[in-house]
Task: structure prediction
Amino acid sequence: MQVQDVMTPNFRVIPYTASMGEAATLMRDEDVGFLPVTNENQVVGILTDRDITVRGLAAGFPPETAVSEVMSPGVDFQYADADPQAAAQLMEERQVRRLVVLDQSNRCVGVVSLGDISVGSGNPVLGGATLERISEDSPASSVSGEPNPAA
Result:
């Protein structure tokens, strides 16, 4: 089994110039809390509903503020042909619950969540154990240090 077997292939992205209000509307309409942020088809960051709420609105930014002002820069990712266990391990290390999925050409082809791994891998223990370790207190990095993937 590979990450591509459990990932969500149909996902939406948002341009870095879009507003927080536009992002919130898209999240509501698509029933998601996570959007890859793009600049000229390159994924340059991640935007979560928490970013909009905490970094944006609670910090006093108006809804018209560009998502680039409140997004998490950088991208945590896993390759589509990787084992779901490797994705779970990376989620633990980075303390994130979602990863962008890339093909071997570094093109963004999906998103994999902790829930996708837990349900899709047939190993709910993996998901529970990973969630427990993700939730532990420790410094987390949101930048992978790898090349910027194309969307």
Summary: Residues 139-151 have pLDDT under 50 and may be disordered. The longest strand covers residues 42-48. The helical segments are 3-6, 20-30, 49-57, 84-94, 114-120, 124-134. The chain has one domain: 3-134.
